[in-house]
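Lab notebook: predicted structure, single chain.

Context: the supervisor wants predicted structures on file for every construct in the current expression panel, including those that have not yet been purified. This is the next one on the list. No modifications to the sequence; it matches the entry in the shared construct table.
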Amino acid sequence: MDNHVSKKVKLQNKLRAVPIPRDFSWNDLLTVMRSAGFKEECDGGSHYCFEHTSGFRLTISKTHPSGILKVYQVRAAIEALDQVGESGGD
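Prediction complete. Output recorded below exactly as produced.
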């Protein structure tokens, strides 16, 4: 059995940590969402639409200038992952 834990699993575990992380970066969010089957589109502004292969959508604003997600954004990302069956820790 391989003890190596993938970046995807590590990031999902960090995203779902209790209490909610206050240092989760936008780039980490992109990694998690892409690995869960989401593709992102940007209208040229700060709003991104993440669309899952199932059709589920999440719209979220990129945080500037820090690039660190706010608590409500972390919650929205967790909810989106739950909706498409990405429970993490796999």
